Amino acid sequence: MAQPKKHLEKKVCLITGASGRVGKSIALAMAAKGYAVCFTYIHSEREAAATLKELRIMSPESEMVKCDVASVKSLQEMFRFLRRQFGRLEVLITTASNFYPTPLPKVSEKEWDSLVDTNLKGTFFTMQFAALWMAEQAAKNPSELFRIITLSDVAAELVWRHHAPYTVSKLGIQHLTKIFAKEFAPAILVNSIAPGTVLLNPKSDAKHKSDILKKIPLGRIGEPEDIVKAVDFLESSTYITGHILNVDGGRLLY
To answer: Is residue 108, in this structure, part of any structural domain at all?
Structure first.
């Protein structure tokens, strides 16, 4: 195995699915905090390359890697790359996710697999590979704390019509978060951020936005910065694990 780059006295953060939107904002914030960031992408290589260019302004050691998180083989290859390139991993943030409507009773096997394999299976195996590696590092340095932060969704606690596979996958992520927190304590702190509505689809019309705002007590759509602040809080906290942090403007009150 090739030796990791000599620069890596710097801590490393892996973020899945961070070429754009909220994932990109988290990646830039972690680079600004001094991490070497490695992020995955699957389809949008041009967008990923643009994100990497921005990251390297703050953190020249940062990398991107193509990875289909729904494939265990692809994840294994990605982690082999991480070990060769960086030789260490302190923080994992899972943002890779699929989202689209699937009305009952016509959900296809292909739709189920597309949503559940990416969102739940992919998150599980990413967490498992990362936690095993972090545990190896913790055995050598017992004073070090490691962190896994999953992104779930407040939809895990709601009953959304037309989104059964998606909401089930997000509820599963929250349960996995608690299981991993219990299993890998005290060396690895494992928490989840459950966003409400953040960054409306550009195709959304005025009525759709108005209907959503009626269900948000704080009266606004969330911004990526709201999620970034939650990540920053959990990354710096030392006495929180197994927690689901809702960042939803009060959406769950409805």
So the answer is: yes
What amino acid positions are annotated as catalytic residues?
166
112 found inside a domain: yes
CATH code assigned at 48: 3.40.50.720
- CA dist list (Å): 102 to 56, 122, 169, 250: 38, 20, 13, 26
> What letter represents residue 50's amino acid?
A
As a whole number, mean pLDDT of residues 169-173 equals 98
Q: CA–CA separation, 95 vs 65, rounded Å?
A: 15
Instruction: Quote the CA–CA distance of 138 and 229 in Å, as a whole number.
Output: 26
Residue with tokens 């590092």: 137
Q: Domain for residue 126, yes or no?
A: yes
Q: How far from 241 is each of 78, 141, 150, 182, CA to CA, in Å?
A: 26, 20, 12, 8
Could you tell me the pTM of the whole model? 0.95
Which tens digits make up the pLDDT trace of 100-153?
999 999 999 999 999 999 999 999 999 999 999 999 999 999 999 999 999 999
CA atoms within 13 A on the CB side of 207: 0
The tokens for 225 are 């910065």
Over the stretch 178-200, which tens digit does the pLDDT of each residue have?
A: 999 999 999 999 999 999 999 88
Measure the CA–CA gap between 208 and 69, rounded to whole angstroms: 31
Structural domain contains residue 6: no
- The total domain count for the chain is 1
Q: Which of 160, 12, 146, 145 is nearest to 84 (CA)?
A: 12
Q: How far apart are CA 172 and CA 156, in angstroms?
A: 8
> How confident is the model over 77-95, as pLDDT tens digits?
999 999 999 999 999 999 9
